[in-house]
Amino acid sequence: MLILGIETSCDETSVAVVRDGREILSNVILSQTAHSKFGGVVPEVASREHIKLIIPVYRQALDEAEVTLDEIDVIAATIGPGLVGPLLVGLSFAKGLAYVTGKSFVPVNHLEGHLAANILQHRTLDKHHLTLIVSGGHTMLVEVKQFGDYHILGRTRDDAAGEAFDKIAKLLGLGYPGGAEIDRLAAGGDPKFHRFPRAMRKEAYTFSFSGLKTAAALYLKKQGQTVRDRHLSDIAASFQEAVVDVLVEKTVAAAAAAEVRHVTVSGGVAANRRLRECLQQQLSRDGRRLFYPAPELCTDNAAMIAAAGFYSYERYGPGELIADAIPYLGLNTA
Ligand code: KG4
Ligand code: ZN
């Protein structure tokens, strides 16, 4: 079965063609550059960019997959969570295509898309596993009993881990989004250069990153430009270590409590090399296995939406064309 996936929940315009939830035929991802001068995503600008880009990106996705619209079986699009204007562009486009072609439409939860990136890539992954979804908008630990059946163990009280990465990157003058740049710089820095606070250590699976963000901002203000310039990579490494420590500690504990053999990490921050390395190390000590997606499947992309669309279609059948965008959509915990 060929699924056309469409993702426009934030600032990536992406369209993909995926066969049977496993084989990527194309995955065109256009990261909008119009936001960098604002230091963050401007929803109105993102909506307008999606409108400009969605048709060319869709055409390119079909071309690269070497298929025609006729050959597509199901059209899947992100319905939420995300920015309402951007979501509506992809959703309306998907529903329009489904309406004129008479094909099935499947609404997809963006968070299910992230966790499905691992199901898409790893055939040996157990149906029952634990996932850490960690992105610019979310930080949560979820026990996946099977696709569509979730138990949320914990989430962030305030900011997402990716948001903290982006904020510190901005303060360090690294541009937006800066997570990947901190990752790169940190590789050459000393993670013990400065100890930033680790929050919520006693709250089993609850995260908090706003205190760390403030602590890092105050620290940078106090240090002055010379120290910042001289120790840029040490500061990046120390900050990254504080985020990674907490993510790893809680994920390892949650995996033991959920009694799973397999753990996955997904979302933009899952591309972080230090996070992958530490998770891998600590989970393997307990005999558990870590899976993570290829970097381009960690950050927002339509292949993961097409994969989630396939599994959702298998489980629930087609969705309704009256489906509306749901900016604060949570994970279905039924
Ligand atoms: O999943 P995503 O594309 O969008 C959301 O759904 O939020 O995640 C984007 C986030 C940004 O905060 C970005 O800085 C972060 O993922 N990110 C990283 C890395 N690559 C992307 N953070 C740390 N290390 C990375 N290598
Ligand atoms: Zn995302």
Can you put this structure into words, describing what you see?
There is one protein chain. With 334 residues, the chain is of the alpha/beta class. The protein folds into 2 domains: 2-115 and 297-316, ATPase, nucleotide binding domain (Nucleotidyltransferase, domain 5), CATH 3.30.420.40; 128-292, Nucleotidyltransferase, domain 5. Helix content is 46%, strand content 19%. The chain has 10 helices and 10 strands. The protein has helices at residues 43-65, 84-101, 110-121, 161-171, 179-186, 210-230, 232-258, 273-285, 295-298, 302-316, and strands at 2-7, 12-19, 23-31, 74-80, 104-109, 129-134, 139-146, 149-155, 262-266, 289-291. A 5-stranded mixed sheet has the order 3-2-1-4-5, with helices on both faces. A 5-stranded mixed sheet has the order 8-7-6-9-10, with helices on both faces. The model has no long low-confidence stretch (mean pLDDT 96). It binds 5'-O-[(R)-(carboxyoxy)(hydroxy)phosphoryl]adenosine and zinc ion. Residues 10, 135-137, 162, 165-166, 177-180, 183, 267-269, 271-272, 299-300 line the site of 5'-O-[(R)-(carboxyoxy)(hydroxy)phosphoryl]adenosine (KG4).
